[in-house]
Amino acid sequence: MNTNSRTFRTRLSEFFDMAVKKPVAIARGTDRFVLMNEEEYLNLKDEVLSLQRNLLAALEVREGKFVTTENPASLEKLFDDTSAKVKKKY
C-alpha cells in the first residue's frame, strides 16, 4: 500500500491496521517512509545481520582465515567474534 503524508494523517488508524499485514509506504515530498509491524522489522533486521555474518565468514574463508572446530562452544565464540566485527564495520 502506498499513500501520501496527508492521507496517512487523516486515516492513521486504518494504516496501522494495514501495516499489521504488510508494510505501508508513505511519501512526504521527495522523502519516503515505511510503516511496518515491529515483529516483521525485527525479523528483517536479524536476517540482514545473519547475511552479513555469512558474507564476512565467506570472505575470511576465501582469504584463508578460517577455523575448523568440533567444539560447539568454540563455534559460538567464532560467531560472536564475527558478529562483533560486522557491528564495528557497519
Structural class: alpha+beta
Q: Which strands sit side by side, in order, in the main sheet?
A: 1-2-3
SSE sequence, one letter per element: EHHEEHH
Tell me the radius of gyration. 20 Å
Rounded mean pLDDT score: 83
List keywords for this structure.
elongated, single chain, 66% helix, 90 residues, 3 strands, alpha+beta
Describe the overall structure.
With 90 residues, this protein is α+β, with helices and mostly antiparallel strands. The protein has four helices and three strands; from the N terminus they run βααββαα. Strands 1-2-3 form a three-stranded mixed β-sheet. Strand 2 (24-28) and strand 3 (31-35) form a beta hairpin. It is elongated. The relative contact order is 0.10. The model has no long low-confidence stretch (mean pLDDT 83).
Q: Outline of this structure?
A:
It contains 4 helices and 3 strands.
List the helices and strands and how they pair.
Elements lengths: L1 E3 H6 L1 H10 L2 E5 L2 E5 L2 H25 L9 H18 L1
Parallel strand pairs: 1-2
Antiparallel strand pairs: 2-3
Helix pairs in contact: 3-4
